[in-house]
Amino acid sequence: MTEDVVQLLSPDGERHDHPDYPLDCDHERLRALYRDIALTRRLDVESTALQRTGELGLWCPVLGQEGAQVGAGHAMRATDFGFTSYREVGIFQVRDVDPVDLLHLYRGVTHASWDPHQVGLGIFTIVIGSHALHAVGYAMGIQRDGADEAVLACFGDGATSTGDVHEAMVFAAAFAAPVVFFVQNNQWAISVPVARQSRAPLATRAAGYGIPAVQIDGNDVLASLAVTRAALDRAREGGGPTFIEAVTYRRGPHTTSDDPTRYRDQAEVEHWVALDPLDRLVRHMEIVGAWDAGFAASIDAEADALGERLRDAIRGMSDPDPMTMFDHVYAEPHAQVEADRQALADHLASDVAGAVETR
After folding, report:
1. In a shared domain, residues 191 and 245
2. Is 21 a catalytic residue?
3. CA–CA separation, 4 and 218 (whole Å)
């Protein structure tokens, strides 16, 4: 981290004020933050287990990054819109997207199960960094509409090495687009360490585009909330884009098909375990009197219920009608899509007819 990294909550739970990022956080807010981090973590644990037992084709673990995501999610207004990659499930938790819906993609039954306009979040983006362009385009659109809204674009450190992110930052700076680039530097782009991608902190790259940047302790949920809120407010007020680098750590594999023991050692992992965002928040809540056994038990019970619901829903999920794959390709009818729809219908009908004839 740089010397100017923003931290409001130390690893031992002590609160520090920052002159540029004031934050009033009462007990209710602290409990809401804890709940969202805890439920995000339970979703992650259950999804990993479902993949390991063959119920999901893949999963992208989020363990260790929940604080950065939940803080950013709480910073958004209801009217703001977010573009994410495939790992920002904490923001979806904050925006009340049904966790079962998040798993449909990994089950292989649909591309997305939520209405982006209803929840203010686009569908998962698998192509690294491509959604940064979508975010800036959306931001430029609402800018021209005169809307009092802002856009949050979330991606990892590896995406900063892509051309799409570079082009997105060029356009965002040139047009003062109301967008916040929220980069979770989890130290590894699959097996490539961030030091190999960038010889300087990622936040320093933004100066080349004329975009102000802030580096935050990504395991400090309060810093994530305060800094992201300030950046989104600045965007709405016409101040243009901001680049936030949340320095955190991916404690699990890149995806469930990855083996991180091949490229990093356990001592590194243990260092970051001691900086866990959930444990840090609990320590702070104990200090300020926002933590009690009854509250903890209620969240544990809610997490257990979530786990059971996820297992039942995924194991009981039926295969989709293959014809539905054509329903949302374009907003308006398209000749090629309709031709493809008819071709598949004819193919399926011939398969049924052939099966009948062989009986």
Report:
1. yes
2. no
3. 14
Tokens of 88: 């920002």
330 tagged catalytic: no
**Following DSSP, what letter does each residue of 24-53 receive, concatenated?**
---HHHHHHHHHHHHHHHHHHHHHHHHHHT
Give 55's DSSP letter. S
Known catalytic membership, residue 111: no
Q: Does the pTM exceed 0.90?
A: yes
| CA 150 to the chain's CA centroid | 17
Rounded to the nearest 10°, the torsion over CA 97, 103, 106, 109 is -90
- pLDDT tens digit sequence for 144-183: 999 999 999 999 999 999 999 999 999 999 999 999 999 9
Given the residues 27, 263, 271, 330, the one annotated as active site: 263
Q: Which stretch, 110-114, 242-246, 353-357, has highest mean pLDDT?
A: 242-246
Report if residue 169 sits inside a domain: yes
**Would you say residue 8 lies in a domain?**
no
Do 225 and 75 form a contact (C-beta atoms < 8 A)?
yes
Same domain, 115 and 246: yes
